[in-house]
Amino acid sequence: MMKRNFLICTLITGIAFTSGCKKFEEINTNPNETTQVNSAMLASTMILNITRSDISTTKGFMQPFLLGKYLTWGEGQESFQYNRLGRTDFNRLTLLRNISPMEGYATSDALRKSYQALGHFVRAWQFFNTTMQVGDVPYSDAVKGESGTIKPKYDTQKAVFLGILNELDQANQLFSEGANFDGDPIYGGKTDNWRRLTNSFELHVLMNLYKKTGDADLKVIERFKDIVATRPLMRDYKDNFALAYNNTAGQNYPWSDVPAGSGNSFVKSNYTMLTNTLLAPMKATNDRRLFYYAKPSPVKISAGVSQTDYAAYPGVEPSDAFSALQTRRVGKDYADLNNRYVQLVNAEPVSVFSYWDQQFLLAEAAVRGWIIGTPAQTYYAAGIINSMNFIAAYTPDLTDYHHNMKMDVTYINAFPATAGVALTGTNEQQIAQIVTQKYLANFLQGGKYFAWFENRRTGYPVFTLNSTTNLNTPSSKFPLRWLYPSNELSYNSANMDAAVQSQYGGSDDTNQIMWILKN
């Protein structure tokens, strides 16, 4: 539009027309919006993209938890609940175009190092989540359209992981040399917090390479040990990489009733039912988080079952036929989401990586023998305790939100050592306990598809395979990956086809085993 008006101005003569065109930009400039960009603004855009935008709102917020079998959806048969994975996209990589200008606008060397560190972290985060979905992806040639590379070649998944690890190493070093920066809605620009997050996330990346400990290039165990021994890590749940919400329209908790005037009329009632995958492990161990996660079945309450009784919270099997689940829903005999998630605009910060994730990683590493000195139980207990402390801290003291089953300090500190919770048995049994506790801690928390990726990696917690309802093809298998994006088919097919051929024998389907999953 501006180019068109410029041409009109140059072609039409006359004082009236010329003077009008001179005022075009003034008239069409919004005085309430900035016309310039800076490092802080670009940093905010990227950080919010991998927290608020990736978390999404309303139904989109719940979708990953359908795939992770935490809950079911009653509006219609959902693909994720029944294991149908289609084509993904590489949209998260377009965000990386902001990194170079963010670094370039820095006003001091110390700030430049901080923004460079943030850029490395964001790149590592986005490439990790992209490769986890499909396998090989463009990495070394990615986001180079301005320099003429519009059809990037694909790097092997090993090369991508090496790149991710190296970028996180660089981020750690640069954050240690940088200055606190503007534009950060999570940690207020404190480089110490970002450095801790970076190192903790690198432990997560390394644990996903646990089948590659013999690879001389990756040095998985060596890297893991070095990070634990020499670098700062997250200290408690207050260090969570989590976005806090408030009562400003558009900034409220993703599942809360939206304040009047926001324009969002999404109805949240009668869509969700909590599953046995989530509830059964908590019932088996008398885990009071259940009373903060769920609200009781009205049928059970009417029958005289107390709200303090675990039996008042019946779960459903998410692999059951949609028609059977609809019957349960109509009958109202199920546990639904706790009212606090709907009624509070700031119910709780939503993390995409948490301190408890780190502690459960350390517990698993101790069981696997990667690190020594601190017992796995110590890390494991810290993960559980911080999950419970987090919930207790953000839940108002109302019966409707904890059903008179409050988690006080005594209960929380004692719980990890109780029978059925404390680590015991073989290494594999202990890993099952650790991953299950991670699963419970990440109810309505955790990175996108976090629980599904963990189940794919470890098999825990066990998801029921129902071949009569499973929408994967064949129905006798759970899917292992998404398909490559349709845009790649249209605009980068030669490079995509080469990647599919080298990884999967030319078959881009959901059952193919990517490199990180192979022994």
Structural commentary:
This protein has 519 residues and is mainly alpha-helical. It contains 23 helices and 6 strands. The chain has helices at residues 2-11, 15-22, 24-27, 39-55, 58-67, 99-104, 109-134, 157-177, 191-207, 220-230, 276-284, 289-293, 298-302, 322-331, 340-343, 355-368, 376-394, 399-402, 409-414, 427-441, 450-458, 486-491, 493-504, and strands at 71-73, 241-243, 272-274, 294-295, 336-337, 350-353. The strands form 3 sheets. A two-stranded antiparallel ribbon has the order 1-3. A two-stranded antiparallel sheet has the order 2-6. Helix 16 (355-368) packs antiparallel against helix 20 (427-441) and helix 20 packs antiparallel against helix 21. The radius of gyration is 25 Å and the shape is globular. The protein starts with a helix and ends in a 15-residue tail after the last helix.
Outline:
By secondary structure, the protein is mainly α. The chain contains 23 helices and 6 strands.
> Outline, from the CA principal axes?
globular
**Total number of beta strands:** 6
The helix/strand series, from N terminus to C terminus, equals HHHHHEHHHHHEEHHEHHEHEHHHHHHHH
Strand content: under 5%
Helix share bin? 40-55%
In whole angstroms, the N-to-C terminal distance is 57 Å
Radius of gyration: 25 Å
Biggest sheet descriptor: 2 strands, antiparallel
Q: Assign the structural class, choosing from mainly alpha, mainly beta, alpha/beta, alpha+beta, or little secondary structure.
A: mainly alpha
Strand order of the largest sheet: 1-3
Calculate the mean pLDDT score and round it.
92
Q: Show unreliable segments.
A: 1-22, 260-265
Number of helices: 23
